[in-house]
Amino acid sequence: MTQNDIIQRTTEYVKGEFQNDSSGHDWWHIQRVWKNALAICEHEKADGFIVQLAALLHDLDDWKFNASEDETPRRAKAWMEQNGIDPHITEQVCEIIMHISFKGAHVENKMTSIEGLIVQDADRLDAIGAVGIGRAFAYGGYKGRPLYDPDQPPQLHQNFEQYRNSRSATINHFYEKLLLLKDKMNTVTAQRIAQERHDFMVLFLDKFMDEWDGFGTRE
Ligand code: ADP
Ligand code: NI
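Above: inputs. Below: predicted complex with nickel (II) ion.
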């Protein structure tokens, strides 16, 4: 099998796995991360095959949907092994998947490879802007979270434990993660795109707060 064949097979596999998702982690999210990662890749010196595999497989073993004992991305690893991918490449892709997720405002990013930094940027770009707003509320609904609770202030988490256990309202998620992403982009390409998406979220939050109390209460 050529590398192109493997990518093709992997898209079909991932499409099937994410078919009925309503948490914002559907196939279209994966496809955008894949496309965005390839676009960022054009401006960087990186291995395109590793970038594509990591982008396509990055959410298969996400901690938000799998209660796994350790951090090994089991399903992604099994898929690559079944398809005869070089163990060295499999290992690099697994390393990226293990470190891709945001784990709290004050938690250090452990991603080191350029391929990983690219896929992380592509994933984070899809968490902000108009699509990011839509995905945040989809995820909040999926988890049964309130839209907003004015009595519950956002928290900047010091560790992954706190972040994972948080049950706060979706609007808090903007302050706890989404508005922080602009300054956490790794590549210049992503930094540029993030700025515009960030500004749009700020505008959205302004409007949301304006409308929250009902128009009769304001002068
Ligand atoms: P990551 O692994 O970095 O969280 P994902 O690809 O899994 O990246 O995307 C995370 C998506 O899930 C984002 O769009 C984000 O808005 C949503 N999400 C995660 N946690 C929450 C939360 N507590 N409230 C609302 N949305 C959330
Ligand atoms: Ni993702």
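The CA atoms of residues 127 and 217 lie 33 Å apart.
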